């Protein structure tokens, strides 16, 4: 198993560039299934394990994918099967995003149930409610969800989401592009990744209005064609580097970061005493002399992102005073706390609330990344800790960060990555992470 080793105590300074957004590129690749003509060319597709998995899902459907130099070319004229196997879907929850496009394009899809990852049960009832309202019959059995369109094609519908789910909004929006008539999604998620997906779909010939607001209106069209698109920068990766600057008392310019996408993170950092300056190419983040703690509550966009919660908690541990973190999106997203405590963190969890005592002298320890952002948060805490920290479970970090150790080292961190013994040539390819919790579709 790979490990990341960090010796804490170095101030970071310099420039670090963010990659294309993982959470934008995954639905965009899934949406390419809808292109009956021509080729899609997706630029700034980050070389992440999750991107490799979704590419494999499309390939397993018979779609042609070529991925070089952060550009993916997709030709989806021919689709051989409407079934996405357990072997691939178990590796990444977002694989379920192929359900909407397959249903719209072929009228039939059979997808393995996605697992809930360690951060919560993560049901998909809102995705299914949307497909049903658009005229699909849904059956569950043998670990698969099978959806079939009644009649010739999906039809438009008015769908109110009980929770403003990012994935459900994306899946329903993709399905609706080829439905007969108009679909309206109410209480839609407003994340920048939804807007990026809608822009791509519109470039393919779809007619979508209102993406980025709570009401999205999709007029169905007969067919879509491939399009050229550049993925937006990753706001969570950018936010992670912002905290790397703040937690080390450093000064980083984060190239590509978009201030508007990071408004709640910038605002909380400024409240703590961090200086954030924005220009058209990125954000400069300078730590103040003494940081003071704040309270943070995760909320759907434009609220504070749950994907930044653990990284922010790392910063709160070294700030002055006590701060409270409230996690409202996922019911089990405090697993990093136990690992922080191993590093001398003083944190008390009660249900969805964590009370974080500040002024902690963090100490290096052997810790384990339990999920993607928990892993990033451990790296951040390790940068501020006394002594060496050894982080295992690095495959989680590889799902969402391009060369995290290398990029941090380039701005002054004492960080290295230790790889396992090479795999003998005769072996099968290394396995990607599987989810910790049994599948659920409640
Ligand atoms: C690939 C991707 O983009 N992942 C992001 C996406 O995940 P994902 O799209 O899975 O997250 P959702 O927005 O769907 O989940 C938000 C909440 O809604 C609940 N829910 C969701 C769907 C459903 O049918 N029923 C239901 O109850 C979930 O359990 C969760 O409590 O948004 C999350 C919330 O910002 C982020 O943390 C993830 O990084
Ligand atoms: C939870 C995340 O991703 P996913 O939805 O792919 O598990 C994340 O990016 O922090």
Summarize this, please?
It is built from 14 helices and 26 strands. The protein is of the alpha/beta class.
Structure description:
Mean pLDDT is 94; it is low at 427-442. This protein has helices at residues 22-31, 49-60, 86-89, 99-106, 125-133, 166-176, 192-203, 235-247, 263-272, 309-318, 335-342, 372-384, 394-398, 404-410; strands at 3-7, 13-17, 35-37, 40-43, 64-68, 71-75, 83-84, 108-112, 136-141, 144-149, 158-160, 182-186, 207-209, 215-219, 224-225, 228-230, 251-255, 275-279, 282-286, 296-297, 322-326, 347-350, 353-357, 366-368, 388-392, 414-418. It folds into two domains: 3-19 and 233-418, Enolpyruvate transferase domain (UDP-n-acetylglucosamine1-carboxyvinyl-transferase, Chain), CATH 3.65.10; 22-230, Alpha-beta prism (UDP-n-acetylglucosamine1-carboxyvinyl-transferase, Chain), CATH 3.65.10.10. 30% of the residues lie in helices and 25% in strands. Strands 24-25-1-26 form a four-stranded mixed beta sheet. The chain has a four-stranded mixed beta sheet with strand order 2-17-19-18. Strands 5-6-4-16 form a four-stranded mixed beta sheet, covered by helices on one side. The longest helix is centred in the middle third of the chain and has 13 residues, at 235-247. The protein has 442 residues and is of the alpha/beta class. The chain is globular. It contains 14 helices and 26 strands. Uridine-diphosphate-N-acetylglucosamine is lined by residues 23, 26, 93-94, 120, 122-127, 163, 165-168, 189, 306-307, 329-330. Its main location: cytoplasm. It catalyses: phosphoenolpyruvate + UDP-N-acetyl-alpha-D-glucosamine = UDP-N-acetyl-3-O-(1-carboxyvinyl)-alpha-D-glucosamine + phosphate. It is found in: Cytoplasm.
